[in-house]
Each structure stands twice: as C-alpha cells, then as structure tokens.
C-alpha cells in the first residue's frame, strides 16, 4: 500500500505535504528493514508506528481528509429496521452471531468492519449466506469497542490509536479457534469473508494450512503486495470505484498478482471486481431507503453467494432459500 500511495502522490504539487510524506516513507523503510518483511504488521516496534497506521496516515496526507469521498472507511451505517434471523452465542469467550443450520456441510466465518458485528446490514448479509446453505458465524473480534470518531468534523480522528489497540495477532488467533471449532462440528468446507478491517485479518488466514477453503473480501483495507502474493486459496476481492483506502489502481494490482499466482487453485479461481459508483463500505453501509445503494449492495451479495456456492458446496448442494 505504501508504494501504491507513493505513486499516487507523485501527482501532488504541495511542497509541505511532500516533506511530510517523505518522512513517512523513511519510517516505512526503517520499519521493513527492522522486521525483515511484514511479520510485525499490526504491532509497534521500538516506538515506531505500525504499518497499518503508517498507511492510514499516508492516505490522509496524500488525499486530505476534506478531499476523501463521502462515506470512506469510518462513517457508521444508517439505521436499518432489519432484524437478524440468527442467535447470539459465546464461543471461546467471544460473542458470536450464528445463522443457518449447524449441520450444514459448509460454513462461513464473517469478520466484519470497524463498526462491529451488531449492524443490521451486516447481519442481513450473514442471513443471506445462511439462506444459500451455509452455517455462518459473525464474531465480535472488537469486544464491542467499535470505532467512532470523537470529532464530528473529522470522522477519522482517533483511528490510528484505535487500530493500534486492536491487535491483529489476537484477532487471527480468535478466528483460527472458531475455524477449529467448526471443523470439530464436522464442517467439511469453510470460507472466510472479511470487510474493510476484517479483510486484513482474513488475508492472514489464507497463507498456509489454516483450514480455509475460499475467501471473499469486500472493500478491503491495508493489504500488502506480499500478503496477496502469499494467498493459497480461491479469493474474490470486491473493490469500490470510489475508495482512497484500496484504490481501483491497487485493486488492479491485486488482480494481476492473483492471476499470476504459483498456486493453481488461486490463479484459476480468484477474481477482482471493481463496483462502479460504489464507495468504501457499500456492501454493509447502505441506506435501506436508497434504491440504488441497495441494488449495488445486492449485486455484491449475489457475487459473494455465488463464489462461496462454487467453492464450498459439494456437488449435491444444499437447498437455497429466500429470506
């Protein structure tokens, strides 16, 4: 992401911002030298900022908070009257929303974005997946500490500190335990879906033998080139045309990497789709009263359902029901 931002910044003429960005790039180079790769993502190292926070700060410098598209990244979704059809439980001390049949042969672990697992639009998408035959688990990896800026004039204020507080390794460990639990219940195929912040957790589950068979990322945040190169399972990335976090140029770069993957399953079964007119968060942050926004979200939902149906269901697929 840092390199992609550097290329985008080359078109900016502001000298003061140039000096600031060069300083951030210097920190990024030192950070990578010390870590010898991306192993320290999501942590602090001898007082240096994490790479996730660094990328966010660079984004603000390059694009400016006043120039970001409305709704980018941090604005919570509008109210919705939708009531989830699942139940709330506790797994390994973590609150989860489960929906669908526990006896299904396939399951999806849904790692949601920074405004949490209780959002009605998030639970609607989970219920849609359950209606297509999967057992779906939406976990609260944020311990009810959802992000909300304290400054009404700057929806991003406090985000770097919030990102630093929510440990990526802890979330990965919790997700891995949920996957192990599902395997213990006899689930044969498991998919993972990550939205925004959740995509950063999701991608770390796709490198090796983590028990994941396929994954979907909606409007992902803070992915690195090395992470995308390391993916070993079929992956669908749904990106927005209007997004400063994962720009269309970055999404195209991810597409090229997946298309040239050394893993046959990844190379032949992955795709990247850019949704025209969509901005970051559109799949679960739409207004129920906005017909165009709902249609755009439904398109992404349908693509997600089709992808998981292809890669998780056995030939004699479970019956799809309407909700």
UniProtKB/TrEMBL annotation:
Top-level taxon of origin: Eukaryota
InterPro entries linked to this entry: AB_hydrolase_fold, Dienelactn_hydro
Residue span(s) of domain Dienelactone hydrolase: 96-311
Full protein name: Dienelactone hydrolase domain-containing protein
Source organism of the structure: Riccia fluitans
């Amino acid at each position: 992401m840092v390199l992609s931002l550097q290329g985008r910044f080359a078109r900016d003429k502001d000298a003061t911002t140039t000096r600031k960005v060069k300083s951030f790039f210097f920190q990024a180079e030192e950070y990578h030298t010390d870590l010898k790769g991306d192993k320290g993502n999501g942590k602090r190292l001898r007082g240096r900022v994490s790479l996730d926070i660094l990328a966010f700060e660079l984004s603000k410098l390059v694009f400016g908070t006043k120039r970001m598209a409305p709704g980018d990244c941090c604005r919570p979704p509008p109210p919705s009257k939708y009531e989830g059809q699942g139940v709330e439980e506790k797994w390994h001390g973590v609150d989860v929303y489960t929906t669908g049949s526990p006896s299904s042969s396939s399951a999806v672990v849904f790692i949601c974005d920074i405004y949490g697992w209780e959002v009605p639009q998030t639970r609607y998408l989970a219920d849609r997946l359950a209606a297509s035959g999967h057992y779906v688990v939406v976990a609260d990896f944020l311990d009810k500490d959802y992000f909300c800026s304290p400054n009404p004039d700057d929806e991003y204020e406090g985000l770097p500190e919030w990102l630093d507080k929510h440990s990526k390794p802890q979330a990965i460990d919790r997700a891995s335990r949920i996957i192990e639990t599902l395997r213990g219940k006899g689930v044969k195929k498991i998919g993972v879906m990550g939205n925004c912040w959740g995509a950063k957790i999701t991608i770390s589950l796709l490198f090796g033998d983590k028990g994941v068979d396929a994954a979907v990322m909606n409007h992902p945040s803070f992915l690195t080139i090395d992470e995308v190169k390391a993916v070993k399972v079929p992956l669908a990335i749904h990106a927005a045309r209007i997004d400063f976090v994962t720009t269309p140029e970055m999404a195209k770069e991810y597409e090229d990497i997946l298309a040239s993957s050394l893993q046959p399953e990844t190379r032949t079964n992955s795709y990247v789709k850019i949704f025209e007119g969509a901005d970051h968060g559109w799949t679960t942050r739409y207004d129920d009263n906005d017909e165009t926004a709902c249609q755009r979200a439904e398109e992404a939902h349908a693509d997600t359902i089709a992808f998981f149906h292809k890669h998780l269901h056995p030939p004699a697929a479970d019956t799809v029901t309407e909700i």
